């Protein structure tokens, strides 16, 4: 039954982390579009910061992906 | 029972990740339309950023898809 | 009992992914109508972007559908 | 007990997918009425886009219906 | 115990689908009244679209009803 | 134990469907009062549409009631 | 154990249906007071519609009460 | 164990019904105070309607109380 | 184990009923302060109605307390 | 195992009742500060009503505390 | 197993009570800062009331702490 | 198994208490910044009150920490 | 099985505490940016307070980390 | 079964911590873009504070990652 629980752990690890990270990118980029529309001359600064924010959010999803892959290939 | 739990893990992994990512794309694109309507001359910039945001959100869903497929084809 | 759990996994995989994707399309298209009403001359651009957004959201639902069908026809 | 779990899977698959899709159509159409009232001359465009959005949302519910029917008639 | 689980599946299938669909009709019709009050001359168009939206939402509830009745009369 | 699960299914089927439908009628009628207050001359049209919306929402609750009664009197 | 589950079903059936219906009446009547304050001359029409809305919401709670009483006195 | 489940059913029946009904009265009366402050000459009408709304909400809590007491004194 | 479940039922019965009732009083009184500040000459009327609302909300918590005490002293 | 379940019941009884009551006091007092700031000459009336509201909210938490202490010292 | 359940009860009792009380203090003090900024001459009154509100909210957390400590030192 | 449940209790006790307290500090300080920006001459008063609020919120987290440490070092 | 439950406790302890603390920092810093934009000359004061708020929020996450590490290295 | 529970703990530890941290970065950066658009000359200050906020949020996710990795490599 251990093998099944490890699989379940891998699935659980990725599902909320990836989903909420996706939601977070959606919120962040949505606000960025909003701000660009209101202040077009800030667009370049906001764009580069948006990339940084996306990368950090993506990073949290990748932490979970790493745990998930360790569970599947190393821990099994 | 392991096989059943692995299947459950694959289903769990994809369901919230894909669903919340879909919700995130919905929020992000919705805000993008809003911003385009308010500042039409920013439409091209916002459009290309929207594609980048969608791709990163889609990526979180694909992380979960990868875990899900590994569970089904490699880990089984 | 494995067969039952695989079935449960297929059901779980599709239910939240499809439902939240549907909600996401609803939010995205709702905002699109809003923006068209405020800026009619942007309607064509928004319409084509709406199609792209819907397709990407639909894609997340299809990821889950694929996992679901693999569970039912390949993994069983 | 497998048969019972397959039934449970079919019920689970349809319930949230159909319900959230219904909620999504409600949100989308509600926003569409709003936009028509504000910009009556856009009504025809919004109406045809609303139909497309409803069809795509309906599609996510149908994905779940398909999984549900496969579970009941093919997988059983 | 299978029979009990099939019954549970039928109950689960209908409860959230019907409830959330009811909520969706409530949201959609509420917005429709709002729009009619703001733009009375659009009332006829909105009314006919409201009927279409309600029918599609009702359809998602009926999908679940169909699964529920199949579970009770065909699958049992 | 089957009998107990069938009872549980009947209880589950009605509780969220009826409750959320009640919430939906509350939201829909609340918005209708709002619209009547803002545009009194639309009151008759909104009133007749409100009745139609209430009937359709009530219908979703009745779908669940039907499933519930079938579970109690036919399926038992 | 059946008897206990039937009791649990009766309790489950009434609790969310009654509670959410109560919440729905609260929302509906709250909006009605709001509308009366804004448009006093509509007060009589809104009042009679409020009664109709309350009755329909109360009806959903009574559906659940009926299922609950059938579970306790007929099904037991 | 039946006796324990019946007790649990009685507790479950009253807890959410009473709590959500209390929340509903809070929302309804809160809106009533709001409306009175905005339109003092409507205060008497709103007050009498508030009493009716409270009674109907209280009624849903009492439905659950009745089910709860039947469970404790008749069904036991 | 019955004794333990009865205790659990008593705890469950009071916890959400009392908590949500407390939240309801908080919402209701909060709105009352708001209304008094906007329309000081209505303060006496609102104050007496606030007492009535609080009593009715308190009543729902007391229903649950009664069920809880019956469970502990009569049903045990 | 009864003793453990009674302990669990005592813990469950107090946790949500106390927590939600605390949240309710927070909401109520927060609105009271708001109203005082907008209408300083009402401050004394609002202050005395705030004390009454807090006492009634505190009362719901104390109901749960009473049930909790009965469970620990009388029922055990 | 009793000892473990008592421990679990103590943990459960404190976690939501303390957490929600903390959230409540956050909401209450947040509103207090808001009101002070809008009406600086009310700052002293609001400050003393804020202390009273915080003490009452803290009290609900302490009720749970008391139950928790009784569970750990008296009931064990 | 007792030892495991005690550990689980310690983990449960701290997780929501600490998390919600952190959220509460976030809300409280956020509002404080807001108020300072609107009324800079109140900044010192708000700052000292913010520290008091943070300390009281931190206190609720520490209650849970205390219960958690008693569970791990005294109760074990 | 104790060892597994201790591990689960460590995981549970950190997950919500860290996550909600992260959310709290996000809310607090978001409001701080907002306030700085509205009142630039307050930026230095807000910045130093933001650091204090972040440290206190971080502290709640560290409480949970401490409990988690005690569970893994001392309690095991 | 211990090994499986440790895996589950590692998955649980990372999933909500990473996901909510990602959501927090999304909220914080979204507000930052907003503030930059409103007050462009504050952009540099806000940008450097945003980096600090992101690092502290990221830190909470890393706490969970550390616990997760300890669970997988040290505790196993």
Which residue ranges of chain A are poorly predicted, with pLDDT under 50 across at least 5 consecutive positions? none
- CATH architecture label name of chain A: Up-down Bundle
Number of helices of chain A: 2
Would you report the number of β strands of chain A? 0
Oligomer: homo-oligomer of 14 chains
**Shape assignment of chain A:** elongated
Fraction in helix of chain A: over 70%
CATH class of chain A: Mainly Alpha
What is the percentage of strand-forming residues of chain A? Answer: under 5%
* Main beta sheet of chain A: none
In the CATH hierarchy, the third-tier topology of chain A is known as F1FO ATP Synthase
Radius of gyration of chain A: 17 Å
Characterize the structure shown.
Chains A, B, C, D, E, F, G, H, I, J, K, L, M, N: InterPro entries: ATP_synth_csu_bac/chlpt, ATP_synth_F0_csu, ATP_synth_F0_csu_DDCD_BS, ATP_synth_F0_csu_sf, ATPase_proteolipid_c-like_dom, F/V-ATP_Csub_sf. Chains A, B, C, D, E, F, G, H, I, J, K, L, M, N: It holds the Pfam family ATP-synt_C. Chains A, B, C, D, E, F, G, H, I, J, K, L, M, N: Its main location: membrane. Chains A, B, C, D, E, F, G, H, I, J, K, L, M, N: This is ATP synthase subunit c. The structure is a homo-oligomer of 14 chains of 76-residue chains. Chain A is an all-alpha fold and 76 residues long. In chain A, 91% of the residues lie in helices and 0% in strands. Chain A has helices spanning 2-38, 43-74. The mean pLDDT of chain A is 90. Chains K and L meet through helix 1 and helix 2 of K and helix 1 and helix 2 of L.
């Amino acid at each position: 039954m251990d093998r099944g629980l490890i699989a379940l752990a891998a699935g659980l690890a990725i599902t909320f982390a990836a989903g909420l990270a996706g939601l977070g990118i959606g919120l962040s980029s949505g606000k960025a579009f909003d701000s660009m529309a209101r202040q077009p001359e800030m667009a370049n600064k906001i764009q580069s910061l948006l990339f940084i924010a996306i990368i950090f959010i993506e990073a949290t999803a990748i932490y979970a992906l790493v745990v998930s892959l360790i569970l599947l290939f190393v821990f099994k």
